[in-house]
Design goal:
By secondary structure, this protein is an alpha/beta fold. The chain has one domain: Alpha/Beta hydrolase fold, catalytic domain (Rossmann fold). The chain is about 35% helix and about 20% strand. Strands 2-1-3-4-7-8 form a 6-stranded parallel β-sheet, with helices on both faces. It has a two-stranded antiparallel sheet with strand order 5-6. Strand 5 and strand 6 form a beta hairpin. It starts with a strand and ends with a helix.
Amino acid sequence: MYVYIHGLNSDGKRSAALLEKSLKEKVVRLEWQCDRPFDENIAYLLHETEDLEKQMDDLENMVIIGSSMGGYYAAVIAVLKCYYCVLFNPVINPKKTLLQFKGLNRNFATSQTYELTDELINSYRFSGKLNKHGIPRYVVLGKNDTVLDYREAEEFYRGCSITEITDDEHQIKDYEPYAKEISTMKYAVCYIDPDELESQN
């Protein structure tokens, strides 16, 4: 099953539709609220993915796809649930990234306005290790990203992911070049040893 998690100030409808077109399969879109703290959002996303997991067949993998801040959430969920994940220009330090957007914000998809406060920014605390070995990851980084420095994510995930460096900008406009790699993850056989992951804490 493919699940997509959107970035900041978005709702993911456009990206999910483009992914469905490229993958030729349904992509379930999950939303998180930009004006709510991290703990609330991650609890909701975990609940939703666990419900979706019950609908899967025995041979199918859960593949969590995320862009930007959605990439951060996808990475957290993948570590907590041992899911496969695909990360497009993922945020690796949410506090640092969100400081750029501190103050009044507008969700471009919904037109909702909200205040990104210090309290919300500082709510992003995850004690786990996002780049644990043993989690199947495909990381796509655009060299022309003007929001995030792709080199930080490249270094962060080095040795624990399949990483592809592209000429894309921050927003992915075409998922077709990545469809084949993403598709292989749905029914890939990869034994993830929870004990090994636990030992890396």
